[in-house]
Amino acid sequence: MDKHLDHIGIAVRDLQGSITFYTTVLGGTLLDQYRSEAPGVESEIAVIDIQGERFELLAPTNNTTSPIARFIKQKGKGVHHVAYRVRDLDEAIAELNQLGIRVLPETRRINKHGRRLIYLNPADTEGSIIEYCDYREESGS
In the record, which residues are listed under signal peptide (predicted)? Predict the structure, then answer.
């Protein structure tokens, strides 16, 4: 199945300062900013476009339960995940299963933009956090 880079997720402590850096220094455009308190997300998210490339700045909203807070505590700020767009998320998951690559079922969700997503198990990706996603209107789901 074809995969294309969708976005890079960046864990940050100071969302407004990071937005300023990405828009002023890197010349990006803030496309959206929203808060998700869904279990397993608990983050404020800013979507930045830099010349057609997307970045999601992720700041924890709950320092106890947010996976972004845990990530920052363990590894510090910086690249959190790389997301790949697939044509159909369900088919991509089936392909991963055939290859012996596990996903983290509890991470499966649909975000506010209609993006269906799931994270692969980092134990099967050499420790990298990888997201697979599709967009419902494109996948025909």
Answer: none
Amino acid sitting at position 28: G
Q: What percent of the chain has pLDDT over 70?
A: 96
Structural domains for the chain: 3-139 (3.10.180.10)
Give tens-digit pLDDT for 12-52. Answer: 999 999 999 999 999 999 999 999 887 778 999 999 999 99
Cβ–Cβ < 8 Å for 132, 93: yes
Residue 43 makes CB contacts below 8 A (sequence gap 6+) with 35, 36, 58, 59, 60, 61, 66, 67, 68
Chain centroid to Cα 62, Å, comes to 17
- Give the integer Cα–Cα distance in Å for 136 and 87: 9
